[in-house]
Amino acid sequence: MYKIIIFFFSIIIMTQSCQHLSVPKDSRYLSMVGDIANDPKLDDPNFTLCDEKNTKQYHNLYEEMQYEGEKYALDNIFATQFKPSEEAKDSGMIRIRFIVNCKGETGRFRLMSSGYDYKKKQVDKAITDQLMTITKSLKGWKILSDKKGPKDYYQYLIFKITDGQIKEIMP
Fold first, then answer.
1. Which member of 6, 43, 104, 141 has the greatest number of CB atoms within 10 A?
2. For the segment 51-107, what is each residue's pLDDT rounded down to a tens digit?
3. Is residue 116 in some structural domain?
4. Full residue range of the structural domain in which residue 138 is found
5. Strands 92-100 and 153-162
6. Is 161 domain-assigned?
7. Cα–Cα distance for residue pair 90/75, rounded to 1 Å
């Protein structure tokens, strides 16, 4: 019994002492995994965030798509504007991530593509360039607010492509 009591006190003391340790912040790293840092070579210099250190992550958003008309509107925009190429018959998934700022403007677009096996894959530029152009032209992203006011947030679109045609847009 004596050993059990000492064991539990040891755990409590170790827990308390560990809480006072602090790890110095390294400015080379972003504050959250997956944050999109501004890259002057890629990004519009006129796109600004309300709060660079407090951009809402995907899991903090509401259930529905944060776009006027929701997913139905996005599906219609891509269905009418995307023109499949006769030569580009790639299949795979293309993810475009970006930030919607506190004014409903978008910026810091990043594209990543993979095969259906989730391995990195280069998809024909005739497809990716079109998807990026249409995504950048989207107007109607909702402004998210909390008690303190409008917030910046991350958004993404994943396009499932089969034989050069959009089969599904997620989320």
1. 141
2. 877 777 655 455 566 888 888 999 999 999 999 888 888 899 999 999 999 999 999
3. yes
4. 26-170
5. antiparallel
6. yes
7. 20
Does 33 map to a domain?
Answer: yes
Q: For the chain, how many structural domains are there in total?
A: 1
7 pLDDT above the threshold of 90: no
What is the dihedral sign for C-alpha 60, 62, 149, 99?
positive
3-state SS of the chain is: CHHHHHHHHHHHHHHHHHHCCCCCCCCCCCCCCCCCCCCCCCCCCCCCCCCCCCCECHHHCCCCCCECCHHHHHHHHHHHHCCCCCCCCCCEEEEEEEEECCCCCEEEEEEEEECCCCCECCCCHHHHHHHHHHHHHCCCECCEEECCEEECEEEEEEEEEECCEEEEEEC
pLDDT for position 78: 95
Q: Write out pLDDT tens, residues 108-165.
A: 999 999 999 999 999 899 999 999 999 999 999 988 888 888 888 889 999 999 999 9
The answer as to whether 4 is a domain residue is: no
User: Which has the closest alpha carbon to 93: 113, 78, 77?
Assistant: 113
